[in-house]
Amino acid sequence: MPLPAAKDGFSLADFKVARAIGSIYKGAPIVVIHEPVLEQIIEYSESGRTREVGGFLLGGTYGEDHTFVVVRHFHPAIQALSGSASLTFTHETWADLNRQVEQRHPGELVLGWQHTHPGFGIFLSGYDMFIHRHFFPQPHQVALVVDPQRQELGFFQWREGEVKDCGFVCAEEPLPHA
To answer: Taking the CA of residue 40 as centre, how many other CA atoms within 13 Å lie in the half-sphere pointing to its CB?
Structure first.
């Protein structure tokens, strides 16, 4: 069976290795994250073993109805207020994100956010759902939760009007012609 491709030319076949992890749902965007970006997020999450830390997922969407959501960059939210079971994105956090996207990643979209749940597992709390609904309401925007103590992680996406857990594709570096 051929790998899915978008009409605008994006294809998972453009990567050396693309591994699906978890359930990919028909009719929902396919979340793709570059392996070095996932490694960066996991490493950053290790700094949040006793308090929540987080950041933003940057990249692009491809295909009609955002068939693919491709995470190419991670921006740590170092200005966020961090507690043992909470994370607050401040005005400074949003200003820094906008500045960094403009200066370092022009043309990239904010695809979602990441935060840790140290020792609590992989889920979105009521407060997390509030953040996602109000600040990441677009159908292609996702959330990534990492529990650095349990060494678990999971993505969440909009599906059928609700935020639900989902699988993702971890992709190695693109092939030279891609």
So the answer is: 15
Q: What is the rounded CA–CA span in Å between residue 45 and residue 138?
A: 25
Q: Residue 178: inside a domain, yes or no?
A: no
Host H or E run for residue 31: strand 30-34
Q: How many domains does the chain have?
A: 1
Domain residue limits at 66: 12-161
pLDDT tens-digit readout, 17-41: 888 999 999 889 999 999 999 999 9
Q: What does the alpha-carbon distance between residue 89 and residue 55 come to, in Å, rounded to a whole number? A: 9
Q: Which residues contact 102 (CB under 8 A, 6 or more apart)?
A: none
Q: Tokens 């992890």 — which residue?
A: 21
pLDDT digits (tens, 9 = 90+) for 60-95: 999 877 789 999 999 999 999 888 888 999 999 999
DSSP string across 128-142:
HHHHHHHH--STT-E
- Whether 57 and 110 have beta carbons less than 8 Å apart is answered as yes
Q: Which two tokens stand for residue 12?
A: 């998972």
Whole-angstrom distance, CA of residue 47 vs CA of residue 159: 31
- From 75, 46, 19, select the one nearest 147 (Cα to Cα): 46
Q: Model-level pTM?
A: 0.90
